[in-house]
Amino acid sequence: MASPAPAPLDDLDLKVLHALQIDGRAPFSRIAAVLGVSDQTVARRYRRLHHTANLRVLGMTDENLLGRQSWIVRLHCLPDGAEQLAEALAKRPDTLYVVLISGGTEIVCGMKPRSRKERDELLFDRLQRTRQIVTVSAHCLLHLFYGGRLGRRSKPTVLTPEQEAGLQPPAPVLSDAPLPLDAADEALLAVLRRDGRSTLTELQKATGLSEARVKRKVEALRSAGVLYFDVQYDRGPLGQAVSAMLWLTVAPRALAEVGRALASHPEVNFTSAITGQANVVASADFRSPDALYTYLSAKIGALDGIHAVESAFILRQVKQLTYEPGR
C-alpha cells in the first residue's frame, strides 16, 4: 500500500522555514522565542520539514573570499550519454550542483575548482576528451546579485520585520585579502557542508579541537563571510512545481539594473553576472509552465536593456549542493 501523501505545509511550517533561511544555525530555542512557541514545537516542525520537503541546512563557503573562482559549465551531450555523465559529475567534490535540462541532452553544473590547475585540467582536458560531450561552454561568475550569501533575505516573507531582526546573525566584515584556511578549518567545513546544524561535539570530533576553539572557529569563519548557511528543500510542497534556468543577453549599461531587478523578483532564487555572450544567468521557480510564460512576457519583457532570453526547464536535479554516495 502506498504511503499517504504528507499534509501541506501550514503557516508555522513556513515561519520555521523562513527562520532557518535567515540563520540556518539558529538554536531552536531562539527560533521558538521569536515565533512565540515552544522549543519542542520548533524541533517537531524541523523534523516534519525534513520529511515533507527534504529540508537540509548546509554550511557553504564564499569561494571569492577564499581567492577562488566559481563557474557554471554547460555541456551539450549525445542523447544516450547525459544521465550517466551527470551522475559522474555529481560524485566530483568540485561540483556544487548538477542539473539536466533541454530534453535531457544538456547538463548544467556549478563548479568550484580549488586552483587554476584543477580548473584547467577539468575544462581543457577531462571534459574535452569525454566521448558523450558534444560542446562545452564555461562561464565564470562575475558578480552575484542574489543567492549564496546574499540569498533569501529581501523577498516577501511570512515573518514580520521584528521577527526577522530577532533572528538576523551579525553582518560579516569582508576583507579584500583571501582568508587562508588551516587543516582544522577544512575539516570543520567538510562536516558543515553535509549538515550545517552539526553539533559542536561533532565538529570537535572531526577537528580534534576543544569545543571552545571549534565555536570560535565557526564564529570567525561566519564573521569573515567565508561560511554561510543555505537551506535546501523541495519546492513542490510550496506549490512551485516548475524550475527553470534563464540565460539573458543584456546591454553592458543595463547589467546592474537588470541584475537588481531579477534579485527582487520572488520567483528568482539565484542570479549572477557571468562571462559569455549571455552575460546574466538566473534560476527561478514557478507554479506551472503558464506562470513561466507570464513571468517572461510581463516581468522580463518590461526590463530595458535585455537583447535576448533563453529559457529551459530543469528536468532533474542530479546533485543539490552536496553529494554523499550511497544516500
Alpha-beta classification: alpha+beta
Arithmetic mean pLDDT: 88
Percent of residues in helices comes to 25-40%
SSE order: HHHEEHEEHEHHHHEEHEEHE
What is the CATH architecture term of the largest domain?
2-Layer Sandwich
Q: Just give the CATH class of the largest domain.
A: Alpha Beta
Domain tally: 4
Distance between the termini: 24 Å
Query: Biggest β-sheet: count, sense, barrel?
Result: 8 strands, antiparallel, barrel
Please work out how many helical segments DSSP would assign. 11
How is this structure best described in words?
There is one protein chain. This protein has eleven helices and ten strands. The chain folds into four domains: about 55 residues, Winged helix-like DNA-binding domain superfamily/Winged helix DNA-binding domain (Arc Repressor Mutant, subunit A); about 80 residues, Lrp/AsnC effector binding domain/regulation of amino acid metabolism (RAM) domain (Alpha-Beta Plaits, 2-Layer Sandwich); about 90 residues, 2-Layer Sandwich (Alpha-Beta Plaits); about 45 residues, Orthogonal Bundle (Arc Repressor Mutant, subunit A), CATH 1.10.10. The strands form two sheets. Strands 2-4-3-10-7-9-8-5 form an eight-stranded antiparallel beta barrel. It has a two-stranded antiparallel ribbon with strand order 1-6. Helix 1 packs across helix 3, helix 2 packs across helix 3 and helix 7 crosses helix 8. The longest helix has 15 residues. About 35% of the residues lie in helices and about 25% in strands. It has about 325 residues and is α+β, with helices and mostly antiparallel strands.
